[in-house]
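S.,

As promised, the iron/sulfur cluster run. Input:
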Amino acid sequence: MTYLAKPRLHHPTLKTNKVGYTRRDYEGKISTLCAGCGHDSISAAIIQACWELDVEPHRVAKLSGIGCSSKTPDYFLGASHGFNTVHGRMPSVLTGANLANRDLLYMGVSGDGDSASIGLGQFAHAMRRGINMVYIVENNGVYGLTKGQFSATADPGSKSKKGAVNHDSAVDLVGMALQLGATYVARSFSGDKEQLVPLIKGAIGHRGAAFIDVISPCVAFNNHAGSTKSYDYVREHNEAVSRIDFISPAKEQVADPRDELITVPQADGTVLRLRRLKADYEPTDRAAALHQVMAQQAKGEMLTGLLYIEGEAEDLHTALNTVATPLNALRDADLCPGSRMLDKLNASLR
Ligand SMILES: Cc1ncc(C[n+]2csc(CCOP(=O)(O)OP(=O)(O)O)c2C)c(N)n1
Ligand code: SF4
Ligand SMILES: [Mg+2]
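Predicted complex:
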C-alpha cells in the first residue's frame, strides 16, 4: 500500500510541542522499505527526538547517499531541506553546505555500504574535520538495496543468507570515528528506542562531529542464524555502558554519591547527564573507550550507548574562524573589502 499518499489531516487534539507542531509534522512519506526493516525504527526515533527537542523542521538539512538507509530521509522530516547525493558522497556535500550556512542542523543518514565501503574516505575526513553534524549509519552488514552482498562492516566468520562465509576483517566505524577525533561517538540498536532516542537528542545538542552507529537488521538478507547483525544476535550480544538520563538547560553540577552519574557540560550551555551502567566505563577517555570497544568485539560482543563524549568540543567553523553569518545573508559591503584593503592584501603577498 506504499503508493497511497499519507493523509494530511490528523486528530485535532494531537499534542503540540513548544514550537507549535504535532509529532505528525515531523513525519515524511510512507516508507517503501520491507516491513520489519530496522531502518524504519531509526526514522521513528529521529522523528521522536526532533519533536521532543522542539526542533523547527525548516531548520534541519538532511543528507544521504544511496541505499535503503539513504532512502529513509524521505520518510521523516518532510518539511526539512533534503539532499540525496551520489553513493558515498554525502559527507563532502554536507561539509560544503555546513560551511555555507552554519545556522541549520545537519543530519547525515547513511548505510554501512555507503559509509564503510565506497564512502570510507569521505566518512574519515568528515570525522577528522569535526563538522558540526549528526551522522547516523544504519548498519546492517549488507548492501540491502542491491540484494544482500556483504558490506565492509560484516564480521569475519559471519554467514550470508545462502551460507557463504565472510573472510574479510570488518571495518568498525565506531573505532574509526574514535581514532579520527569525532567528539560524540555512540552505538545503538534499532530495536532499542529507549536507548536510541536520547542518543539522537544528545547528538543534536552536541557541537562537533557526532557519530551514531545503529545496528539495523535487514530482514530480507541478513536476519538469519550465522549473521552477527540479526535481531536475535544483537539482542543477545549487546551490553549498554550508559544511559543518557537527561539534557538539562543549565550548567548545573550534580553529585551522585554512588558515582553512577557523569555530567558533561556542552558548548551550547546544556549539560548532558549520563547514568553509568558498566562500572569501569569512562566515556570521556578516548583511548580507554577504543580499548574497551575492541576488547568487547574480540569476544563477539558489542558495547552500546554513548561510548565517548568530549563536552565543550570545537567544530570546523571554530578551527577556520569563519564568519558567523550564513554566506547567503552576507551583503556586498561584507563581501567586498574595498580597493585599499585589496592593495594591502596584494602587497602582503608579493
Ligand atoms: C557509484 C555507485 N556504485 C554502486 C552503486 C550500487 N549500489 C546502490 S546501493 C549500494 C549499497 C548500499 O548499501 P548500504 O549503504 O549498506 O545501504 P542499505 O541498502 O544496506 O541500507 C550499492 C553498491 C551505486 N548506486 N552507485
Ligand atoms: S532490503 Fe533490507 S535494508 Fe532494504 S528495505 Fe528490505 S530489509 Fe531494509
Ligand atoms: Mg547496509
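The pocket of iron/sulfur cluster (ligand 2) is lined by residues 33-34, 37, 39, 68, 140, 144-145, 218-221 (CB under 6 Å). The mean pLDDT is 93.

- D.
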